[in-house]
Amino acid sequence: MAVNPMPFLSLFLPLFGAAMLALLPSPAWADQTDVRLDGLFDLLATSSGRPAAQAAEAEIWRIWVASGREEIDALMAEGLVAMNDQRFEDAIDLFGQITRRAPEFAEGWNKRATAYYLNDDHVASVRDIQTTLALEPRHFGAISGMGLIFLRRGDEEGALAAFEAVLAIHPGAPGARQRVEELRKRLGERGA
What we know:
The chain has helices at about 5-25, 35-45, 50-65, 70-85, 90-100, 105-120, 120-135, 140-155, 155-170, 175-190. By secondary structure, the protein is mainly α.
């Protein structure tokens, strides 16, 4: 009996592609302008297999968080520790130093937006999300953050639009599909 290799290959090739992209030598710089991102976003958008999408997403985040400048990367690491320790004011200050020293570095703005969100300053968070998206329009993390802010404000239509935008970039985004389904159901029930 002949075995059809196509089901195996359809699972294996996206994983192999993500692994090969991850093995490419890292340039001295890395951020939202990194040339590897286009291929990773293509893989993210077309991967039907969850492991391949997860590998592409992890590599995108790894690239986004690395500025390639030692002082900026040190501030990023320190800010992440502060945020993880729930020292949000410290994190905001550290990420603010990044945005002042490297205003072109999208992830500095995104991380500060996250710290503002966690510190319940949604106005400042939205402002930084807008800057993040001006620098990196494909930033599914920032768009998802905007969706969460819309939810906190009770704007379900805005939240739905944000999470649908996330899925257009990252169809396997954790939680986005579930939120879209829940919001469509709730909004549909109100419209009926």
